Amino acid sequence: MRRWRVGTLSLGILLIALGVVLLVAQFKRQFILQVLLTWWPVVLVLLGGEILFYVFTAKEPEPKIKYDLFSIFFVAVMLFCSIGMYGLTATGMLDKICRAVSSSNMTVDVPPLRTTADERIKNIVVSAPEGRLEIKRSSTLEVTTFGQAVVNAADRQEAESLLEQHRVVMRREGDTLFIKYPATVYPGDFKPYIKEIRHTLLLPANIAVEINDSGNYFDLDLDGQAVGENWLIRGSGRINVTVAKLSDLTIDAYVRDVQQLCGSANWQPAEIINDTGNTDLKHKGTVLWGTGKNKLKILLENGEIKVDEI
User: Fold this and answer.
1) Where a domain ends, among 67, 102, 137?
2) 8: which of 23, 142, 207, 308 is 20 to 30 A away, CA to CA?
3) Using one digit for the tens of pLDDT, what is the confidence trace for 32-73?
C-alpha cells in the first residue's frame, strides 16, 4: 500500500512556479516581489489541494497519508509563515517593506525658482537649509535658486514628486524678500526620503543680505564676490568663504573660540567686549582686502569659519 507524504507535491509545484517567475523577471528586468507577496495564500491552497487530491484519487478504500518529520515541519512552516504574512499585510508593514526593498538612491535636479529683485527690494533674508548651500553673485537682478538632490525612492516619478513637496519658498513682504529652504528629515518608516540636497543661490549685488540657520546646522559655501555692503550670517555650522586677492571686502567674525577661525586668510583675532548681544561670543576675528567697502559680519555660535584667498 503506497503512502503519500504530505507536502511533497506542493513543494515541487511551488519550486517550479517560483523558478519560472524569477526566470521571467530576470529576462524582463522587472521587480516581482510585490507579485509574489500578493499571491502567497496560493501555498496553502496547494497544500490543502494536495491532500484532497490524494484522498479522492486513491484506489485504496482507506488511503494512508504519511505525516513524517518532514511533513510536520513543512506544514508548520507554511502555517506560521502564512499567519506572519497576514499580520504584515493587515498592518501595512508588507507594503512598506516592499517599498524599502524596491527603492534606490537616484540623483534628481531640483527645479529652479526665480524672482526679480527690483528697486523696491532692499533686504533679502535667507533661512539656510541643513544641507549644503552655495551662494554666488548673480549677473542680473534675478534671485535664482536651484540644486541637485539624492533621493531614495522607488522610481524617478516618486523622487520628483517628493522634491515638489520640499520646494524652496520665496515670499515678499514690504521691501524684504524672504527665502526659506525646507528641512529634509529622515522619516524612519520605510518611506521615500531625501538623502541629500545641494542648493545653489544666486543673489544680485547692492542688496543687504541676512542668512540665518533657522534651527539647522548649515553648510555654506560663499563666493566673496557675491558679498555686498551689508551682509550678516548668524547661527551654527560650517562657513567656507573664498576671496579674490583684489577684492574690496571686510570680514568681521564673532566666535566663542579663536580656533573657529580657519583658512589661509590672515586673521587678526582679538578679545572683545560683547557688542553683539550674545555673551557667548567672546572673540572677534577680522580680515581686510582693499578698502573693505563690502562688509560681511558673521556671528557663529558653533562650527568653523574658513576663509581662503584665491
Assistant:
1) 102
2) 23
3) 555 655 666 666 676 667 666 666 665 556 555 555 566 666
